[in-house]
Amino acid sequence: MNPFFYTTESVPPDAGFSLYSLPHLIHLLAVFLTIWLVRRLFIKGDKKRKRHIFVTVAILLLLDEGVKVVFLVSTGQYWAGYLPLHLCSIDIFVTAFASLFPDNKYLKEYLFAISLPAALMAELFPSWASLPPYALMTLHSVSVHGLLMLYPILLLSDGFRPNARNLWPSILFLLVYMIPLYFFNKHFGTNFMFLNGGGEGNPLSLLSSVFGNYYLLFFPLIAALLWRCMYFAVRLIEKKKPERG
């Protein structure tokens, strides 16, 4: 098989790249540079242009996911593990809804508090590192998570100010969603949202290796600490803005 068409199931050993190797750093540079450029274009735009950029990002996410599905089905490599049940896959559709309902504060809160850190962690600790850096699924993963980071960053640049009081629907949704998903993973041998194992190459793998499935008990603590840092950072930035002016 052409290495461009490898998936994590068909890739041979030693075909991938290491974390923070040159290929990984190039991916990260491409993502952060794109976000920086689009944000600059966004800030300089009027309300109409900003709206167009939001919608374009949402459409690109859906197209990116569509290309993945068409590729996997056409090459006979699609299986239950590629269903859009991972957190970042769900975030694609949440982003689409956010573009349709731009004034919904709960969708914005979800994208800031859940989609943004999840996508960032995926870029920093890619689960696709076993693939060649130029494989289609690698490029898909890098671009999707980059776009998922971009949208909430644009929301912040557009004046959105996160409020933890608006986070409860997102937390409730995740709690309700994770229960059946855990048993779905058990039945189909999948590991959506890393509920049935920490995966490889990310910090969760360390917890999973030490505590087994009990590492799930750390999820609320990790989320609470992460959100505390994120919301504190936003408040800190807001307080410093008048000092600049």
What does this molecule look like?
The chain has 245 residues and is mainly α. The protein is 67% helix and 0% strand. Helix 3 crosses helix 5.
List the secondary-structure elements in sequence, H or E: HHHHHHHH
DSSP strand content? under 5%
Residues in helices, as a percent range: 55-70%
Q: Regarding quaternary structure, how should these chains be classified?
A: single chain
Gyration radius, rounded: 18 Å
Instruction: List segments where confidence is low: pLDDT < 50 over at least 5 consecutive residues.
Output: none
Structural class: mainly alpha
Globally, the shape reads globular
**How many beta-strand elements?**
0
Write the layout of secondary structure elements.
Layout: H1 22-44, H2 47-74, H3 87-100, H4 105-124, H5 136-157, H6 168-188, H7 203-211, H8 219-244
Keywords:
single chain; globular; 245 residues; 67% helix; mainly alpha
Summarize the structure in short:
This protein is mainly alpha-helical.
